Amino acid sequence: MIEIKNIHKSFGNSEVLKGIDLNIEKGEIVVIIGSSGTGKSTLLRCINFLENADKGSISIGGVSVNTQRHSRAEVRELRKKTGFVFQNYALFAHMTAKQNIAEGLITVRGWKKQQAYDKALQILKNIGLADKADSYPIALSGGQQQRVGIGRAMALSPDLLLFDEPTSALDPEWVGEVLALMKNLAQDHQTMLVVTHEMQFAKEVADRVIFMAEGNIVEQGKPEDIFNHPQDERLKRFLRKVGTL
């Protein structure tokens, strides 16, 4: 069980998150949709403490952290429970695909280098990139880089995988391969919280869809309810804007 309670976050005078409460069950795939600037990515970054929320608490896999009173050790333990997939890949340019995936196992888990490399090679095989193990990011397509990014997040066997618009930086021809990998993870019952503009992915894969607006969770439910029977006027306007209503 993942519990996010009363998360608030402001940047200067701008209140971006206004008291977010969210529970996610083990194996659940939750997709967050909404217009740009509504706090979706900020919420993900606060969950992983890439941003420090001003108020609230986060509990993942038995580790609970108060955002106002916490130690570095507590944040480190919480981060071990999560994997983060960035929209711009965020791979280490000086490392090969294999090294990028193995790095967290070595530095976070304390694995021996060869053990980590063996695990990385298995992951690369699973994501269809075994032949790219010794390639550097510059030699990979955008889709391949993002798949390596997902592989890196998977390596730590996290309780929760966080995806921050994982296809938004991709050329259209590479989007499908990344979404296919995410669908495979969903079939394996990997718990995921996904911010995306890919409405079809949300319809097909999500157990629950959350619509955010103005720093709040406005409406949530099963995909068929959100997309076919929206209640809130802001959600209706958003769905018309993206062409799904």
Written overview of the protein:
Helix content is 38%, strand content 25%. α4 (113-126) crosses α5 (142-155) and α5 packs parallel to α6. The protein is built from nine helices and ten strands. A hairpin with a 2-residue loop joins β4 (55-60) and β5 (63-66). The chain starts with a strand and ends with a helix. The strands form two sheets. It has a six-stranded mixed beta sheet with strand order 6-7-8-3-9-10, sandwiched between helices. It has 245 residues and is of the alpha/beta class. The radius of gyration is 18 Å and the shape is globular.
Number of strands: 10
Order of helices and strands: EEEHEEHEHHHEHEHEEHH
Specify the number of helices: 9
Calculate the mean pLDDT score and round it.
Answer: 96
How can the largest sheet be summarized?
6 strands, mixed
Note the topology.
Blueprint: E1 2-11, E2 14-24, E3 29-33, H1 40-47, E4 55-60, E5 63-66, H2 72-80, E6 82-85, H3 97-107, H4 113-126, H5 142-155, E7 160-164, H6 172-187, E8 192-195, H7 199-205, E9 208-213, E10 216-221, H8 223-228, H9 233-241
Parallel strand pairs: 3-8, 3-9, 6-7, 7-8
Antiparallel strand pairs: 1-2, 1-4, 4-5, 9-10
